[in-house]
Structures are given as C-alpha cells and as structure tokens.
Amino acid sequence: MTEPHKPYILEVCANSVASAMAAQEGGADRVELCAALVEGGITPSWGAIQLAREALGIRLHVLIRPRGGDFCYTPTEQEIMKRDIHLCKELGVDGVVIGLLHPDGGVDIEATREMVQMAAPMDVTFHRAFDMTPDPFLALQQVIETGSSRILTSGQKNKAPEAVELIAELIRQAGDQITILVGSGLNESNVREVIQKTGAAEVHLTGNRVYESPMIYRNPAVFMGGNPHIPEYEMCQTDPEKIRTVVQILQNASGL
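The structure assignment produced for this chain is given below.
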C-alpha cells in the first residue's frame, strides 16, 4: 500500500484491533499495531495482526518486540523477532517497527540491518530504543546505516514536547536520509506547536480514551498482573473523535 502524499502524516499507536479501526475511522494515515502498552508495547498476536490487516484500508505497521524492558536481545529473542517479521510479510503488513541495542547503548547495526533486509519490501521504523542511546546524533547515523525508513523518537525525553530543540536538530541532520517520526505525549492540545517548533512531517500518538470495564463483580484481593497500581477494570482505546481533531489540526497547519 502506497504512503499518502500529504504535508503531514498521522500514525496512531493502536493497542488493539478496535483501536486500529477507530484510528482509521478518525482519518489516520497509518497504524502501528502493538499490545501491552503498559510495558511500552510488545508484538501483538497473530490473530490481531491478521484481523487488523483484513479490517484496515490504511497502512498497517506492526511492532516487533518480544518482551518489555530493555532492547538488548538474546539470539533466541532475535530469532523470535525474525519469525514475527516473516509472519507479518506473509499477512501483507506494510511495515514493521523494530529496535535493537548493544549493551553499551549503541545501535546494533548488524542485527538491525539483517532484519531490515529480510523485511523488504516492507517499510521499517526504528522505534524509541533510539531514545535509550547515549548519543542521539551518533545513533541517527547508525540507524541510517541499517537502511531503516524512519526513526520514532521523543527526543530522548519521556514526552516529545519536552525535547523540541533536540528533535528539530535531528530532523535537520537527517535531511532526506531518513524520516523522523515524532511521538510520545502528543495530543490535540500540543501537536500543532510541536510540528511548528520541530519541522516534523510525521507524528505518532494514541488518541486514547479510558473506558470502564463491563465487569460487575470485581475481586479486590487478586491482581492478575501482580501490580495493584495498574487499573485492571479500565480499558484504553483510541477515540476516533480525538483522531479527527488531530487530523483537522494537521490539515489547518498545512493550509488544506
């Protein structure tokens, strides 16, 4: 599926098929499908990927991350990633999202390049593992060497609006070598300011709304994840109205 030719591209980070469909309903250009956002996102199930591909007419990218935590993967974990990439290609996914680091925090160029090559002709985004590197400008050049299409970054801060100066410099240095996709902490209240201050042409957000669980009986003594601070009777899902609002903001910013 061809990427739309627009001044701004909106990618929605979707934590479920329902969120992916809501993103499309709201007018998003692309979906990054993942699971377990409380862990920073991991690879969704085969069933979720297949159903999302069947349901979406927009571009579908899939997160390839075998576990939460850091981005220094064992040979077994890398083999899992390769098999998931192969599966995505078989299902007609448009792109995959990966990120591998060495113990010193540098980009694992060799392993990443191998996955980029095996993913072809799918698009490859290097995700926010980039934000865990010690030198963002060196990491920028390292990711370019891998052949990746873009880098998702919050500018090495928890939220992209906190790092507009660094993001702007990364975009300048990247030029036409690689696309910088700006994400984390973006919403309808700040996306216009961030694109104006950084020069970003692609943005990434969830547009989530919290929905109450339909469960009536709730056992207060048991937590399935073992963490009582994670709300187990709430569900976050992309809100199409929030996506519509962001789409309109981007259209207004581009004069469309």
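Interim note for the steering committee: Residues 149 and 176 are 10 Å apart (CA to CA). The mean pLDDT is 95.
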